[in-house]
Each structure stands twice: as C-alpha cells, then as structure tokens.
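tool=predict chain=A
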Amino acid sequence: MSKKRQKPLNVGFVALGCPKNIVDSEKMLAEIAQAGFIIDPEPDNADIVVINTCGFIAPAKAEALEVINHALDRKRKGFVKKVIVAGCLPQRIREELFEQADGIDAIVGLGQRDHIAQIIKKTINAKHPQAYMGHSEVTHDDRARLLITPGHWAYLRISEGCDHRCSFCTIPAIRGRFRSKPPELVLAEAAELASAGVAELNIIAQDTTSYGRDLKIKNGLAFILTELEKIPQLNWIRLMYLYPAGITKKLIETIAESKKVVHYLDIPIQHINNLILKQMRRPDTSEQIRKTIESVRKNLPDVVLRTTLIVGFPGETDRQFEELMDFVKWAKFDALGCFKYYPESGTSAAEMPSQVPGHVKQQRMEQLMLAQQEIAFAKNQNRIESKLICLVDSVDNKGSGKGRFYGQAPDIDSICIISNCSAKPGNFINTRVVGTKNYDLMVRQI
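tool=predict ok
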C-alpha cells in the first residue's frame, strides 16, 4: 500500500519595517516558495508564521512585539503551529527576544536570511526554541525575489550596513559595517527586475552616497547610475538615503545629464544646529548642508527634495529648535518626515544628560510639521494647471486611479489621484493638475 502524500505546509509571512527589510522579506518569500511551501495570505491561520521585524527605534520594536504576540496568541489557541521571528529585532537583542515574547519557536538573524526554508523545516519538528544567528556582515545576493511591491516598481539595494557612528542610531550594531554590493551584482539584479516588468527602480542603502568607496571605485554612485541607465526597460531611477556630505559635484552633474535618474533627492539631515550635529556625530555642518541644497537647486531647478529631522535630541534648547524651524522655512522641502528622539539602549546619546521631556518633543514635532504642512500645501497649489507625467500604480473599477509623478516616492510620499484613468498599472500617462486634496494632487489624464 502506497504511503499517503503529506500535504504541503502553509507559511504565513508578515513583513515589517523599512525598504531594506522589504528586500529581505521578498528574498525570504522566494526561498520559501521555491522550497515547496504554500504561502498563505492569511497568517492568522497558517501552519507556520514568519515575521520579518524592524528593531531600529522604540516604536518599530513595539510594533514588532505586538505582531509577534498576536501570532503567539493564535498559536496558544491552536490556529498556528510555529512562530519564527526574523530580521533586525532578533539581530539586535538576540536570545533576549525569547524572554520578551515567550513561545517563539525560532529566531533568525540577518546573516541567516537565505536559509529560511531550511530553518522552517527544522522548526517544524523541533521540541525546543532555536536561535539561528550566524554572521550578519555578508553582502547578500538579492536576485530572484518574490516582489511584494507592485510589479512595475521595486527597490534595488546597492550596499549593506553603515560606517557612520551617529550617536542616536542602532543601525551599525544591527546591520554591521558598510559594504558595497559588487557592481556586476547590482546590474544583474537591476536587469532581472527590468526584464520582469519593473519600470521604476528605487535605489536604497543605509548610506547610498558612499557606494563603491570600499571597493575603491571613484565616484561610485555616479558610476553605477551611469551603468543602470543603459538598461533599456527602465524609465525612472530614484535615489534614497543620500548623506548631504556625499552629494558631490560629480553626482549632481550625473543626475543633471541623465534621462532616467529622476530629479528627486531624499537627503536625511536630522538637524541644522552645529552643536547638535556634532553631538549626533553627523559628518555635516549647517553651512555645508545649506551649500548642498543651494547647489542642488541651482543645477537641478525642478528638483524635489525630501528630508527627515529629529526633534528633542538630548540638550536641544528652545533656541536650537527655533534655528531648525527657521531652516525648514528657508529650505522649503517638498516633503519632510519628523521623528521624536528616542533614547535607544546601546547608543551613546541615550546616556547623555539633559534628556528632553516627552511633552516638549511632541510639541516641537507638531509645531515643525505644521510649518512644513504650510510649505507643502503652497507647493501643491503652485502645481495646479501644470502638466505631469504620472506612473499609474492602481486603478479601481470606476476608473479612478492612483499614481505618482517623479517627485513622489512610493509608500512614503503623497500621490496623484487620477480621474477618468483609462491606463493600466505600470503605464506612464500625461496628466494635468486640476486641484489638491491635502498633500495629494488631483490630476486628469490628457
């Protein structure tokens, strides 16, 4: 009598965190699918739940623990058999995670990402929790991913880790030292994505402007952009996470001469006061940051600039905050994200005196974001009646579409709401701006 064939196990997957984490999630999903597991769109009822976590700041850790505890609750009720936690949170706190969330069956560090399928197989029959940490300082091959972004855009990670030692940041402790992905690997991955239908590549890294430095490639980012532009199927190449000090004359010239690198720069500045920048261990000064912004705008007049700022850093005075406010009103960023400072364990800033009270941080964040809202709304008003090329992201059955012009990065920026959209997702269309809705633009296909 033949042995009854065993039913494939269902794996539920939860992807949390930043774009770098999304790339890791996409690679793990591909490994899981290729190993013959069924990926269940409903993690609540899967045989095994894999949660890829972020652990960068306190809110990300809290979100991860909430998701983990929900999965563990489903396990206790018998709906889920095993819970595996991967990514930055286990990399950061390691076996301590077993204590913080009792019932986890396995934790998986960043260096074990590509072994997730084997780890699932081991975990199925394991009687005791296991930690699979290994060595995190590898340069991953991110080809053959199962995209969880729409098929027409994707992230392209060009390096891993960070050599900056910002006093507030846990990333070097989690992701390790800076290491560039070899150019041939970057280009092979980009070509693979383009051949699969990706029209927009969003270039990501912890420190994008340092690309190639460790490989002794002069003007590494400019070099890789020039090579990426040669891939015929690509239309848009977008740059994220650019340290101000790394935005060189050569890089600006390369962007200006390119037909595919969009005039959009994401430049995390964090602060503008020189003393705060020094205490943050940032490589920039107020004067350098201002000169960089002026140079970028002079050479790329239609550039869209995004930044991120931190309020409430230890010792931040009212006067230093007002300096930051004045700078925001001067710089007039198109998009701006603001974070309250969190004293992360293991960082030197957490031990600094003069920690700013929570209510003051909240007040400063609200004040700054209201000033930025005024700037953003005014910029939107100035776009009314202008013509924009939009990349369509989605269309509903009533013909209402959502898309973006070059100045809107996916998932973090505003969108274009397209009326009477006859195009399909992934198409580029000509539109006219007819109005605004808060941060979004209302456009009509023409």
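The chain is about 35% helix and 20% strand. The radius of gyration is 23 Å.
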